[in-house]
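Appendix B, Record 12. Input sequence as logged:
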Amino acid sequence: MKKLSIFCTFLFAICIMTSSVFAQIQCTEDLECDDGVYCTDDSCTDGSCVNAPNDSICDDGVGCNGEELCDLEIDCQPGDSQCEEGQVCDIETDECVFVGSVDIKPGSCQNPLNVRSRGVLSVAILGSDDVDVSTIDPATIVITREGFDPLEPIRYSYEDVGAPSEGDPCVCEDPDGDELDEDSEGDGQTDLTLKFRTQELVDGLGLKEVESREIIPLTIMWESEDGTPLMGEDCVKIINKMKWWDDLLEKIKKPKQPKKPKNDDEE
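Logged structural output:
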């Protein structure tokens, strides 16, 4: 009886030791350690999962918007801007640029842009007590949209057409209105007005592929005479009232599939 008791105690001890060893083993391969966080390096080391942050995974290759860091819980986090007050980071050029005030279609807030128009689109770089538009180098002015090559204006002039405004350029007081007067009488400051060919913008910035009545931002970039880069942003509302006609023409243009000849066996 005593030997049986010792034997049972021995077996119990082995069971405890074995269960303890298995409890410490969390994994057998790296795939079992995926924590669902994109920026961590997940590995199985000595039977335990190791989830190490890897900041390089978060790096977007742009320096002026700061160093991106990996957070073990909420993934990649943006860095702190390296730009001075009054500047923004231009991720296309990796430069800190001063922000100017621009107005597409002065006198309108929704800024409707008809992709079928054969006319021009008016844009103004607005002057103020702090911004003298006469110091802008007109040869450096371009308009662009993220992911597209910039386009140059066809002409420019100096006149007072509006006043700088604060807030989101894509938000209007009257979201359902196509035309909303906003300081269209000017503010006594000289502005630099620009003209762009609408069809050049439509083709060059891919505007015909944008859904009708969708609001998208456009960026105007320029340099002062001393080479200081500046930029401003405003929005347009895409108008394509004849899209249904394009869709109909597309269906008409599609070649008809030839009828499959009947097999004599099928008759």
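Residues 24 and 47 are 7 Å apart (CA to CA).
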